[in-house]
Amino acid sequence: MNSIRLRSLPHLLLAFVLTFAGIQQASAQDAAAVKKEGVAPGATAAATPATAAAPAAGGGDAAAIAAGDALFKGNCAQCHAVNEQVVGPALAGITKRRPISWILPWVKNSSKVVASGDDYAVALFNKFNKQQMPSFALSDKEVTSIVAYITSQEGAAAAPAGGVTAGNAAAADGQAAAGGADAGAGKYVDILLIVLVVVLIVLVVTLVIIGNLMKDVLRGRKDLDGRDIEILEQRFDWGKFYRSPVLRGIVGVVFALVLLYEGVQSVMAVGLNQGYQPTQPIAFSHKLHAGTNQINCAYCHTSVYKSKSANIPSANICMNCHSQVKTESPEIKKIYRAIERKQPIQWVRIHNLPDLAYFNHSQHTQVAGLQCQTCHGPIQNMEVVYQYSALTMGWCINCHREMPLNTKDNKYYDNLVKLHDSKNAGAPFTVSSNGGTECSKCHY
């Protein structure tokens, strides 16, 4: 009986150790799942759509208002708000101040209207320190839909994150890069893990004390047989354990496997720059611009929907806002110096594909309708941009195999979809179904 008790103690201690290790691993996985930052493919930077609710005022066709909402955010929201002045004037009541026949040419080429001597245009130009509004290649229908959206939003409460203002820019300027991003559920997981660790340590110490007390009690008994005394007095021979050929063989095999694994990982990581986060010449915050102020990516990267590459914005685009906002900031003064010297800002490229791979931004953004976050991750939450995705061939191929092809209202695909459905009933028509995994699609 006593010998059984002594044998059970090491097993009980081992069970507690294994339980602790399992709980620790599960808690770490839960914490990682909670803290993992990302967005699902197709997700947008904006948290809530502006057109989800009914129009605040005015009226107009719902489709036109929805189209105007997207156009306003992509072209106007960087300098204008509906119900408050930011870089430019508040747009509420614009149809009462100016007829649509005046608004159309003003949006398309404001400098031409000012040069014509129009009294209202000249007065507006002078009022805002002769800040020239950019020209927009929009159709009459698109401008009209923007006006419909503005009319529908007149009198509505301004969104706290809308527009670039001196106030919210200064408020966000002091934010820490890490912020409180891991607050919430992750904090409680950490607290729970700490409590469990403390409880398990107390249990282990208690069991050790009980085991020693039991040995002391048993040593004082006279009715123990030889087997009980042998178990009671046995000591673990660490020297014999170290010299064991089995142990040395296991250690040698594990060491060789670790070296082999690290060697393979090093070879596989050649050219892989996931997580690359260089220091830029100007401390530009995507979290402030794309996140807090919800500036559309296409406003700065103007060719992302119509070109093979997404251009790096010029200093002139920065000056559309920063000729009025945070003009005394040391970082903004670097832009001024670049313009004065007529030199481009030496931004450090982050996302690089090898020359042997063909990639077209417009094909993915304009045709496929993918959002920037699909490949670039939660760009709206990054103080300093880093390469979020692996951008390897396997990563691209997996996306082509899983991503349904956007065939809506495109007659080019009608017959292909029919042929696909006739042979693959129920299977989605993916990019791979259209030859998106063939070598010549990306290598030429």
TrEMBL record:
Residues spanning the membrane: 191-214, 245-264
- Do you know which InterPro entries this protein is assigned to? Cyt_c-like_dom (IPR009056), Cyt_c-like_dom_sf (IPR036909), Cyt_c7-like (IPR029467), Multihaem_cyt_sf (IPR036280)
Quick check: keyword Iron in the entry?
Answer: yes
| Alphabetically ordered keywords of this record | Heme, Iron, Membrane, Metal-binding, Signal, Transmembrane, Transmembrane helix
UniProt xrefs under Pfam families: Cytochrom_C, Cytochrome_C7
Positions of the Cytochrome c domain: 63-154
Extract the signal peptide range. Answer: 1-28
What protein is this chain from?
C-type cytochrome
Q: Which organism is it from?
A: Hymenobacter negativus
